[in-house]
Amino acid sequence: MMSSKMKQPPKTIDTLEEPFRTLFMQNLSEYQGQAFGTLEAALSSTNDSAKDRVKEFSKLCNQRMALCVGAGLTAYFIGDWRTLLRKLLAMRCHNVVRAFSEKELTVNDRMFNKTWTKINVDKYIGHLKNSFFTESTSTLEIGEYLMYDESDHAPKIGTEAEPSYREIFFAEQVRYVISSSIEKKLKKSSASSIEEYFVKLYRRKFIGKEKNIYENGSDDDEVKGIATLAAVVKLCIKKKIKNIVTYNFDMILDKLIANEEVWELFGETLNVAVHVHTYLKAEPMMVLGDKKSKNIVNIYHVHGVLDQEIEEVGPIIFSENSYQNYQKTILNWSNVRLADTMLKYDILCVGFSGDDANFRMLRRFLAESMTNPIMGIGNGRKKLYIMRSCGNEVENFINNPNFASMPECALASIKTYLELVGTYFKKQLGTEVIWSNGYLKMAGQINWLSECKKSRNRSRNRSTS
User: Fold this and answer.
1) Whole domain around residue 277: which residue ranges?
2) Which end of the chain is more exposed for a tag (fewer CB within 10 A), N or C?
3) What does the alpha-carbon distance between residue 413 and residue 25 come to, in Å, rounded to a whole number?
4) Residue 15 in domain
């Protein structure tokens, strides 16, 4: 029998009883135009400021638009950065256990049995978990340890005189973790590739149901898992996006955009060649899709790219040391690609929080430079939008025991949070934050953007540019 004390699932605004739901919706639905509603609903609101923000955002459909994506986009298959770090740590611990798997081993001329080894290995793992899994620990610091731990003897790839042998070995480990995570998902669905998985799932659970999913939500983990990715892929195909900057090592987005059956899902015919770039080579590392097509989609993996189909694995930007080396030169490959994209295109950031220090530095530098009359002539300042979900924050506030007795305080708290984050991005980076109450709502907003119609004049001008 189910216990009456069993923890109830977190509430959302939609599941709150009146009058609390009305209180939230009335006061917050117009924040930034659409924080707790939809972009479409904001256009019919009585708030002129809200309407103006959404209209400005929808202009992306009529202009040259680029994407910047982060780990959140493919987290369903691979996990976020901390999940990736946990898996790498587990691999490290497994190697330690395997090294001490003999029945007896000698340490300082003393014999120890397997039981003693197991106990001490467990202590070793526990110590790592306590220090590494705290939210305050920097992911770059953890990456630094995993890459350069002196107790882990990386195989000698080349010679020790080659400083990159350890970085290459580590990149191979990261590639293995990413590939095995994807394969685990595919195995459950009996799919042979990420493209087949995506097409089957979308046909079965999305087609004809998109509006209901985005408006009313879903309890299906697969639907929730790929909703944002599906919306982004549709946006890329429908709006013919030609430039994508990604901080991900995986090639999930690359392969989906280059797949003929995926294009057919959205009523289009594949007519692009997807060029996969990384800082290791001047030329594309791989070309996918219709390789003869003159319509090129450039996808720039600014921290490196790892995939089973790429034989040559090079160092990746993962640890604190590698990140600092990458930042030393302002005109490194990644910065040049980012700067070029920011100057030429309006950018939509999805699955990317915008908290990358190098990204913020470059954005601020370019924003300040564009105020210079010489640099600003003929260019204009390009818009940059970051889509962020505040669903978790909403749940934390409305599940607080004090909410029922002091809903106004909870309202003020969440509103302050939104204003603080929004004001920072607006003032410091010249960036608009497009809020959503959860990732399904975010997917719905992206889907809405992909279905916005272009004006004829805009389309004709763009085709001749």
Assistant:
1) 48-77+174-454
2) N
3) 15
4) no
pLDDT band of residue 456 (cuts 50, 70, 90) is very low
96 within a domain of the structure (yes/no): no
Per residue, the 3-state secondary structure of the chain, as one string, reads CCCCCCCCCCCCHHHCCCCHHHHHHHHHCCHHHCCCCCHHHHHCCCCHHHHHHHHHHHHHHHCCEEEEECHHHCHHHHCCHHHHHHHHHHHHHHHHHHHCCCCEEEECCEEEEHHHHHHHHHHHHHHHHHHHCCCCCCHHHHHHHHHHCCCCCCCCCCCCCCCCHHHHHHHHHHHHHHHHHHHHHHHHHCCCCHHHHHHHHHHHHCCCCHHHHHHHCCCCHHHHHHHHHHHHHHHHHHCCCCEEEECCCCCHHHHHHCCHHHHHHCCCCCCCEEEEEECCCCCCCEEEECCCCCCEEEEEECCCCCCCCCCCCCCCCCCHHHHHHHHHCCCCHHHHHHHHHHHHCEEEEECCCCCCHHHHHHHHHHHHHCCCHHHHCCCCCCCEEEEEECHHHHHHHHCCCCCCCCHHHHHHHHHHHHHHHHHHHHHHHCEEEEEECCHHHHHHHHHHHHCCCCCHHHHHHHHCC
How far is 174 from 310, CA to CA, in rounded Å? 14
- Report pLDDT digits (tens) over 90-128: 776 666 555 555 444 444 444 445 555 555 555 655 655
Rounded-to-integer distance, Cα 419 and Cα 24, Å:
16
pLDDT tens digits along 192-203:
999 999 999 999
Q: Is 396 contained in some domain?
A: yes
Alpha-carbon distance of 23 to 27, in angstroms, equals 6
Q: In what order do the strands lie in the sheet with 346-350?
A: 286-289, 273-278, 296-301, 243-246, 65-69, 346-350, 384-389, 431-436
Number of domains in the chain: 1
For the segment 46-66, the average pLDDT, to the nearest whole number, is 77
Let me know if residue 19 belongs to a domain.
no
